[in-house]
From TrEMBL:
Organism name: Thermonema lapsum
Bilayer topology: Multi-pass membrane protein
InterPro entries: DUF2179, DUF5698, UPF0316
Family: Belongs to the UPF0316 family.
Keyword Mitochondrion: no
Record-given protein name: UPF0316 protein FHS56_000690
Subcellular location per the Swiss-Prot or TrEMBL entry: Cell membrane
Chief localisation class: membrane
Keyword Cell membrane found: yes
Domain DUF5698: 37-94
Superkingdom, natural source: Bacteria
CC terms in the record's Gene Ontology section: plasma membrane
Pfam family membership, one: DUF5698
Length: 203
């Protein structure tokens, strides 16, 4: 690789080792760690095919990066680039994961007094819910359960807090969901198509 850059770009061996190589290692680490972060998201959501596909490229890029480090093991800048790429890749991966917002979540809201307008608002926006009576430490309450798409969670919470500003609620990840009531804009089809569709809408 060093000879390729020297012959085609006219750089010196020192320039390659101290500038080009660390930059390549840094970018490789950013790429493979970002992929790893996204892959874990798909694993947690049971998307085995996509997780396997991403795992292949994650390992391939990592091998290329670590191979260059061992080839120039006496270059300390390569180690800095490796660590810096890992840290940056974690950050970038989290940004990507947040943008994709793949998966389902279950929201549990405990309401001392129910505002019927909340149920109307949720129904109008296509959110399904289950309402049960319960008893808390301070008296009778209502518990509202709803399974929502992760990308729709902010909207759900917005409606909940609009009608119940002091509502106590918890959110947990759902590995799988079948049937149920979801907004008409809910994703259908393969995860890859849904991801591309989501990215297009955000442009």
């Amino acid at each position: 690789m060093e000879s390729f850059f020297i012959e085609h770009f006219g750089i010196s061996s020192e320039q390659f080792r101290w500038f080009v190589l660390p930059a390549m290692i840094f970018l490789a680490r950013v790429s493979d760690v970002s992929i790893a972060t996204v892959r874990i998201m798909f694993v947690m959501n049971g998307k085995r095919k996509i997780a396997t596909f991403l795992g292949f490229f994650e390992s391939l890029i990592w091998l290329l990066a670590i191979g260059q480090i061992f080839q120039y093991i006496n270059n300390p800048i390569s180690y800095v680039a490796y660590a810096g790429g890992y840290a940056t890749g974690t950050f970038v991966g989290m940004l990507i994961e947040g943008k994709l917002a793949v998966g389902m979540l279950i929201v549990r809201a405990i309401l001392p007094e129910l505002n019927p307008s909340l149920l109307t608002a949720l129904s109008n926006e296509g959110f399904g819910y289950t309402l049960v009576d319960a008893r808390g430490s301070r008296g009778n309450v209502k518990i509202l359960f709803s399974v929502v798409e992760r990308k729709r969670l902010p909207r759900f919470i917005e409606r909940l807090r609009h009608y119940h500003p002091k509502a106590f609620y918890t959110v947990e990840q759902v590995r799988a969901a079948q049937e149920g009531i979801f907004p008409t804009a809910a994703t259908t089809g393969s995860p890859v198509v849904n991801i591309l569709r989501g990215l297009t809408k955000r442009k």
